[in-house]
Amino acid sequence: MFHYFTLWRQDGLDQRIQELLRCQVRERARRSEDPSLVVIDTQSVRAAAGVPKTTTGLDANKKVSGRKRGLVVDVLGLIIGFVVLAVSAHDNTAGTALLTRAAERCGNRLEKALVDQGFKDETIIHGALLGITVETVVRDPDDKAKGFVPQPKRWVVEQVNGTLMLHRRLVREYDHRPDTAASRVYWAATANMTRRLTVPSPAWRDEIVAAA
């Protein structure tokens, strides 16, 4: 199985399948194939002991040794692009790469990208060069709640990150090659979209009500 996984990764078949399903999910939701708004975020993930140090780093702020996953999604939570970097890389590195991939996939329809405060001027300038307005979503200063607070529209990418962590191979960075790690994300997204496109089975609560 890993033999075919490797062949499809090298051929880019994993990304093509994911892209076809993404378009189908958007069409089912009565949206155009390509979005006009995307959301960008990064996630620091710890690496397993066997992962080469040359492909990982140290995030001093989060105290995480591993890799950084960069994700760009649409408002439905569908993945437009993905990158894997050393966790020591700045968010701008991920942001510029993700904007380039989003522009390649969505073309001229893409108008706006939402980011958090970790992305600086370099990302905003790169977006402007691509014809994309990059807006930094800032937490409401009057909000006194502590810890994580979902932000309008940006919460979607946080949800996607959480959903990906439900897949066993994505809880940590186990793969030696970053492109292999990225391929696993595309297959995880494919599995999620396949469930969206198929008729859902009755929930266990429905079965209990029907039996009663």
Describe the structure.
The chain has 212 residues and is of the alpha/beta class. It has a domain at 32-178: Ribonuclease H-like superfamily/Ribonuclease H (Nucleotidyltransferase, domain 5, 2-Layer Sandwich). Helix content is 42%, strand content 18%. It contains 7 helices and 6 strands, in the order ααββββαβαβααα. Strands 1, 2, 3, 4, 5 and 6 form a 6-stranded mixed sheet that branches. A hairpin with a 5-residue loop joins strand 3 and strand 4. The protein is globular and about 50 Å long. The mean pLDDT is 88.
Protein topology:
Blueprint (H helix, E strand, L loop, with lengths): L1 H10 L1 H16 L8 E10 L10 E3 L4 E10 L5 E8 L4 H16 L5 E4 L5 H9 L3 E4 L18 H10 L13 H20 L6 H8 L1
Parallel strand pairs: 1-5, 5-6
Antiparallel strand pairs: 1-3, 2-3, 3-4
Helix pairs in contact: 2-6, 3-4
Q: What would CATH call the architecture of the domain at 32-178?
A: 2-Layer Sandwich
Number of strands: 6
* Structural class determined from secondary elements: alpha/beta
- Fourth-tier CATH superfamily name of the domain at 32-178: Ribonuclease H-like superfamily/Ribonuclease H
Helix percentage range:
40-55%
Low-pLDDT windows of residues: none
Tell me the fraction of residues in β-strands, as a range.
15-25%
- CATH class bucket of the domain at 32-178: Alpha Beta
Query: Biggest β-sheet: count, sense, barrel?
Result: 6 strands, mixed
Shape: globular
Query: What's the tally of helices?
Result: 7
Mean pLDDT: 88
What is the H-and-E element order?
A: HHEEEEHEHEHHH
How far apart, in Å, are the first and last alpha carbons?
44 Å
